[in-house]
Amino acid sequence: MTIAGSDSSAGAGIQADLKTFSALGVYGTTIITTLTAQNTKTISDILVVPPKFFRNQIITTLEDIKPDVIKLGVLYNKSIIKIVKSILGDFKNPIVVDPVLYSGTGIKLLDEDSFELFKREIVPIAHVITPNLREAELLSRIRITNRHEMTKAALQIFNLGASNVIIKGGHDSSKHAKVMDLLFRDKNLEPQQIGHERLEIGDTHGTGCNFSAAIASFLAKGYNISESFQLSNSYVYEALKNSKQIGNGVFVSNPLDHIYDNSEKFKVLMELQTAVSKLEKMPNFFELIPETKTNFVYSIEMPKNSDDVAGVLGRLIDLGNSIRTPNVVHSELPCKSFLAQF
Questions:
Q1: What is the pLDDT of residues 96-153, one digit of tens each?
Q2: Which end of the chain has fewer surrounding CB within 10 Å, N or C?
Q3: 3 state SS for 213-279
Q4: Would you state the torsion angle of the CA atoms of residues 134, 136, 137, 142, taken in this order, to the nearest 10 degrees?
Q5: Which domains, and CATH codes, for the chain?
Q6: What's the pTM?
C-alpha cells in the first residue's frame, strides 16, 4: 500500500509508486493524500483530500486487503499525519517512510506547522526512512557536507525513533564523481555503502518515490533491509539511466523499461519450457544427444548479457530411450529475470 500524493504529470507520487510496484512484480493499493496540478517545471495548485474521506480510504482498503508493506510519501498537514498515526501506529508489518518535504521542482509538500508533528508521530513508526541529503539535514538539524556528518545526521534520526535509516547522496552539491548512498542499520554499526558514477542528466523528478517504492516492494517479496537497499539502488540507477525529458523541465526517471524487459523475459521463459516439454516427448530424440551432452538455451531478442538468457540447469542427457531435462532456471532477482547456468 502506498499513502501519498497524486502527481498529474505522473513522474512522482502515487503514479511513480504504481509503476515501480508493477515493474517489480508486486500489487499496489493507493491511498491519496493530496491532488496536485503539476508538470515537470512546477506545481500550480494542491488540493488536500478531506480528512473524513482520507480516513475512509485507509479503513475501507485495510478491511479487505492486508498489505505486506506500507509506504508513506506526501502527508502534507497535521490532519493527515494524525489519521495515519492513529490507524497505523500499531501496524505490525514494515512501514517505509519517504519524508517528502519538497517536490523535485522545489515546492513545499509538508506544512511548516506540521514538521514537528511529522518527526514526533511518523518517524518512530518507520521500519526504514529514506531522506535525501536536504531532508536528512532538516530532520537532524545537522549540516551535511561529508560522510562523517551523514553519520551524525543518521544517529539523530535514529534518536527520533526510526529502525533503519537510508541517506541518499544524490543531492550532494559538491558534485563528486560518485554518488554515495548509506544504509544505517544500527547506531553502533558501520553503514552499508553503495556508490554509483554520477549521471550527467541534470535535475530529476520522482527518483525518491521510485526508490522508496522499490524498498517497499523488495521487503514485501521477502528480502531483508540490506538486500532491499542494494536491489533498490540498482533498480533506481537503471531507471535514471533511462530517464526522459517528457516536458520542458526536469527529467523523469523511467522504470517502464523494466516492465517491458520482464514481460519479454517471461514470454521467452514460457517458450523455453514449452520447447523442453516437446523434446521430452519427441521419439528417438535421445539418439541426437552427444557424449558431451547438450546445452539448451533461449534468450530475448538481441540479448546484452547473461541476464537476458534462460537455460536448463546442467545439460540435456540421454536416459535409456528418452532424455532427462533438468529444471529450467531463472534468477529470482527483479530486472535480472534470466540466468544462464550450464
A1: 999 988 876 677 888 889 999 999 999 999 999 999 999 999 999 999 988 899 999 9
A2: C
A3: HHHHHHHHCCCCHHHHHHHHHHHHHHHHHCCECCCCCCEECCCHHHHHHHHHHHHHHHHHHHHHHHH
A4: -150
A5: 2-254 (3.40.1190.20), 259-329 (3.40.225.10)
A6: 0.74
Contact 225, 219 (CB under 8 A): yes
Q: How many residues does the chain have?
A: 342
**CA end-to-end span of the chain:** 40
213-216 contacts: CB < 8 A, separation 24 or more?
213/2, 213/16, 213/17, 213/20, 213/21, 213/28, 213/71, 214/20, 214/24, 215/71, 215/96, 215/128, 215/130, 215/166, 216/2, 216/21, 216/69, 216/70, 216/71, 216/94, 216/96
Nearest partner of 303 among 272, 264, 251, judged by Cα: 264
pLDDT for the residue 329: 45
Q: Return the amino acid letter for 218.
A: F
Bigger pLDDT: 223 or 301? Answer: 223
Dihedral, CA of residue 196, residue 198, residue 203 and residue 209, to nearest 10 = 0
User: Over 90: is that where the pLDDT of 169 sits?
Assistant: no
Q: Helix H segments across 101-206?
A: 115-121, 133-140, 147-159
Which three cell numbers mark 134? 536536504
Joined grid coordinates for residue 310: 534462460
